[in-house]
Amino acid sequence: MAKIFRWPLQPSPHDEFDALVRPHLQRLYKLAYRFTRQQDDAEDLVQDLLLKLFPRLDEMRDIEKLSPWLSRILYRMYIDRYRSQQRSPLQLIDNEESFYSDKESKQPQPGEQLASGQHTELLQQALNQLNEDQRGLVILHDVEGYTLQEISQLQDTALGTLKSRLNRARGKLRDILHKQGTFSRT
Amino acid sequence: MNCEQLNTQLDDFLDADPAIDLNGLQQHVDSCSACQKQVTEARAIRKALCELPFEAASPNFEARVLGEVRRQHQKNTQGHFIAGFGSAVAAGLALWFASTLFIPASNPLPADSINIAMHSVNTVKLMFDVPDALADVTLSIKLPANVELQGYPGQQQLSWKTQLKKGQNILALPVLATEAGSGELIAQLQYGNKTKSLRIILKSAANGVYQYQLLPQDPA
Fold first, then answer.
1. What is d(CA B218, CA B199) in angstroms, rounded to the nearest whole number?
2. A-chain residues near B149 (CB < 8 A)
3. ipTM (interface pTM)
4. Where are the domains of chain A?
């Protein structure tokens, strides 16, 4: 009696890859967007990540927690490829004093109440003024909710180092916001 | 506790770090309006960070990026598939298979033709008749440009490993004609260093009638 075997007999590698990564795509896009701040760049970064990972399907099958693994590779790709191409409406400068002396007249008055839309934009501008390490850390922890333990694995950095770096970044962010006039100094 | 201590431990205080004197700092904050304001502002900044908006991905983002992976990697493997055909060795092959297409009894066309409608799934059955059971066989399918397999859009080449039992083994291919035209479907069976191929011409006319004819097998 003839044996009838249906197509497909086993899932294709592409189907298997899709099933593995699809549940993570939106989260990866959001993370990429936080880093790149541009929809197109974020989508390109995720696509490049997938193109890079497909040949590693065998390895991916054995990974117990795919989410942090994917985030780690995405983050490293961003650091390698986009750091030098980072686009920002404000230029990152070393001398904050010279920056604020030029922009002071355009800033809102100290203590002025702002509409939520302006407040968000000022916050984003303040974030953009942090250096890349600090910005990445604030984004991962305070914006996206990664724990310091997760970030430690993602960046291969000791917990203690991350904690002190994060607190310095937060302090600098508050200073920038104070100078912007978003919040007034006491 | 004093203002300077709160200032240096502000984030640890907000994080409720048990390593610091949280009660002492809280008592100070409760009694110092300046520090209360500082704590309130810091909490507002953290809240704003959590709520920072972002631009959603474009429509069909997931399908597009996953489709691109398929497209890029299919292109990369295409050369290998073609090279495999060019170097097929059939001499001395112990197995043989009959290239048989199952024709519905109701089919009004000649025995070497069959109706397959466009834009709907049709089952093309191939029979492989082998004298002995074979494990670790690689089956490969190369489709003409105007045909695809259900569930594999945009893929013109697929291959997978399987095993054949002694005797007749039927492979049912759910094909979908996407455009009128003609082309060759190639089914390749590889076992060890031996390869056999079956080639089928598939034709679809503008009126949607799909015909095929069998070509001679590769010489043994």
1. 9
2. 7
3. 0.73
4. 13-85, 96-180
The answer to whether residues B148 and B156 touch, using CB atoms and an 8 Å cutoff, is yes
Interface of A with B in 35-54 (CB under 8 A): 39, 42-43, 46-47, 50-51, 54
Cβ(B165)–Cβ(B110) under 8 Å? no
Q: For residue A174, give the nearest of B42, B61, B167 by CB distance.
A: B42
Give the residue on B whose Cα is nearest the Cα of A4.
B170
Element spanning A27, H or E = helix A25-36
Q: Considering the entire predicted model, what is its pTM?
A: 0.57
Q: Which of residues 139-168 of A touch B (CB under 8 A)?
A: 142-143, 145, 166-167
- pLDDT tens digits, B48-78: 999 898 899 999 999 999 999 988 876 554 4
CA pair distance A135, A173, nearest whole angstrom:
9
From CA A78, how far away is CA A35, in angstroms rounded?
7
Fold of A13-85: Rna Polymerase Sigma Factor; Chain: A (1.10.1740)
A96-180: CATH, from 1.10.220.110, 3.10.270.10, 2.40.30.90, 1.10.10.10: 1.10.10.10
The winner for highest mean pLDDT among A86-95, B7-16, B113-122 is B7-16
CA distance A10 to chain B (A): 8
